[in-house]
Amino acid sequence: MSRAEEAVIRVRGLVNRFGSHVVHQDLDLDIRRGEILGVVGGSGTGKSVLLRSIVGLKRPDGGRVEVFGEDLQQLPSRQRSRLERRFGVLFQRGALFSSLNLQENVALPLIEHARLPRADAEALGRLKLALAGLPPDAALKMPAELSGGMIKRAALARALALDPEVLFLDEPTAGLDPIGAADFDRLIMTLRDAMGLSVFLVTHDLDTLYTACDRVAVLSQRRVLVADRLSVVEASDDAWIRDYFHGPRGRAAHRAAHPSEAD
Amino acid sequence: MVSTDIPPGRLRVQAGRLQISGNWTLEHHAALKAAVRANRGVTESADETLDLSDLAGLDTAGASLLVELLGAERVKRIRDWAPDLPAERQALLETVAGALETPLTPERRRSAPLADMLVALGERIHALWQQQRQLLGFMGLTLAALTVSLLRPWRWRITSLVSHIHQTGLNAVPIVALLTFLVGAVVAFLGATVLRDFGATIYTVNLVAFAFLREFGVLLAAILLAGRTASAFTAQIGSMKANEEVDAIRALGLDPIELLVLPRLLAMMVTLPILTFVGMLSGILGGAMVCQLMLDIPMVQFIAILQRDIPLNHFLVGIGKAPLFAFLIAVIGCLEGFKVSGSARSVGEHTTSSVVQSIFMVILLDAVAALFFMEMGW
Predict the structure, then answer these.
(1) pTM for the whole thing?
(2) Which of B23, B25, B26 should one mutate to test binding to chain A, selecting the residue with the greatest count of A CBs within 10 A?
(3) Which pLDDT tens digit goes with each residue over A206-234?
(4) What is the ipTM metric for this complex?
(5) For residue B257, what is the DSSP state?
(6) Is the torsion defined by CA of A146, A152, A153, A159 positive or negative?
(7) Which of A34, A164, B241, B265 is deepest in the core (most CB within 10 A)?
(8) Where, if anywhere, are coiled coils annotated (chain B) (predicted)?
(9) Which residue is closest to A138 within chain B, CA to CA?
(10) Which residue of A lies nearest to B25 if distances are taken between CA atoms?
């Protein structure tokens, strides 16, 4: 069990501020191997900022971010790039390269980092697209021709291109219809089981929290209030958490996830 | 995936058994692929002869090669013939095999080079024709909106107009002045060099004044604004379009032409004549400086010759073209902005197109106007 408890990412005493506005103060968080960690919090509590400081897009103003036991900020840039290849990031709006078609989008990191020949990289790219649940004929489409759900899937395929160990998802189900969102949750769970991923999932979607997440971290008052199994988080007596999980939407999602408990 | 001390993936046929061992990961993709291609025949053997027990590392790239080697059908039954494999490996292989069951190569359209070339040529010509039609239509739309809003003074957008005049006009004064000053000096140099052979260097004054009043003042200012402002208009309106702001304006029952195009158009039509005037002045000043330094024609004499030899109508011919150029540049810049669709790439394409089109139109119209004025004797 010790392997499962091992933290792949360890955030300690993180400080982030923009000018005089402090977003994070002494924030601690662990992401364990193989888990899906849901990160929730009100708008403006710095969920995306936290994600960006873990993957190294924003330099924290204080504290440490340890990734696989090493501090990203202290590493020379080559080793850092090596570590960052073990991350996959799905940005909120997909961030697909609009001048490349889908298979080229996924093949790009394979060509650049793994130095595969173009034909092999594109074949692997098509495999990733299929794993993300896209039909074969989508491979030659341009991002501008896609619907929101397909963009999310294609962006997921690109995030998975280098077989990352940790997957960062920034509101993956935002803007999807409920059927598409439920499919996406299932897809993430399947891929987690198949590829042994650890997943850092920023979300507002209560259904995703109830169906997909192993642990939930609540961001509030500039730090992580609780990070634990959902049943523990739900039972917390913080006012915001109570409103979040016991409001009308929270109760509905809870009932949908536990149909046996009639309340 | 800490793989440095684990041997790369291998494929061995030994005593009737197919041994798959080592690291089947992305790093060894090329070697593994060659091994898979070479050993395709040996895999017809029964399930019992497959040995995956030494498999060290596996990712989707390796899994897809295994599926290629063994066939999707067989890999899907992995739980039957390799029950000792760790569960997550089995899951990965099953998932990859499931995704690869249907062929993933999308059909590309067959191409015939000659036909394609003809098609491309036809499409280009058609697009050019459509573009001119659209431009004419958009001009009509703009003029109609302009007339309507001129009749309703309470709907004039003074703030927006002034802000655009500031951006397109005032901020462009230094660059227009500097550029025309330099070109004025160059024209004077040319005149001095050529006219010296005829002993007529004094006519350099007339050359500079003529050139700048009739053509160069307005042309240089218009080309500068086409590069500086038409592109800005396209990018502004284009990114608003990409962000669905233009649709929001429509959905609120407002007219994007009145809100976005008219202030820009009017600002342009106010500023280009002023900039043209600035350009004429500083071009002539550049010429005067060269005359003073190189030809020993003092400033006083320069101005006296101007007054004596250059009638007002040259100035009017020059500045009269400015509002027309301004209209064209603004309309092309705005129309290209409205043509932007979605992506960042599209914003870039249309910005380029708006600069090229407006400079082309300005020069074309200037040539036509020069012919016309010459025939009329103005």
Answers:
(1) 0.69
(2) B26
(3) 888 888 888 888 888 888 888 888 888 88
(4) 0.72
(5) I
(6) positive
(7) B265
(8) none
(9) B106
(10) A163
pLDDT tens for residues B176-199?
999 999 999 999 999 999 998 898
Chain A residues touching B346 at Cβ < 8 A? 144
Nearest CA in chain B to A111: B26
For residue B75, with 0-12 CB atoms within 10 Å meaning exposed, 13-18 middle and 19 or more buried, which class applies? buried
Q: How far apart are CA A110 and CA B26, in angstroms?
A: 9
CB contacts of A79 in chain B (<8 Å) are none
Q: Using the beta-carbon criterion (under 8 Å), do A124 and B342 form an inter-chain contact?
A: no
Which among B29, B91, B99 is the nearest to A127, CB-wise? Answer: B99
C-alpha A41/C-alpha A56 separation (Å) is 21
Provide the H-helix boundaries in B169-261.
Answer: 173-196, 204-211, 217-225, 231-242, 245-251, 256
Tell me the shortest Cα–Cα distance from B239 to chain A, in angstroms: 15
Q: In this predicted structure, what is the pLDDT of residue A2?
A: 46
Tokens standing for residue B266: 């009017």
Contact between A98 and B105 using a beta-carbon 8 Å cutoff: no
**Residue type at B361 in one-letter notation:** M
Residue written as token pair 């491979």:
A139
Does an H or E element contain B48, and which? none
- The confidence score (pLDDT) of residue B286 equals 94
In the block, residue with structure tokens 């390796």? B62
Question: What SS3 class is residue B108?
Answer: coil
- Say which residue the tokens 């024209």 belong to: B187
Which chain B residue has its CA at the smallest distance from A196's CA? Answer: B88
By Cβ distance, the residue of B95, B107, B343 closest to A144 is B343
Residue whose token pair is 């299932």:
A186
Closest listed residue to residue A162, CA positions, set A199, A202, A125, A109: A109
Kindly give the parts of chain B with pLDDT less than 70.
1-6, 15-16, 41-48, 104, 106-109
- A94 within 8 A of A150, measured Cβ to Cβ: no
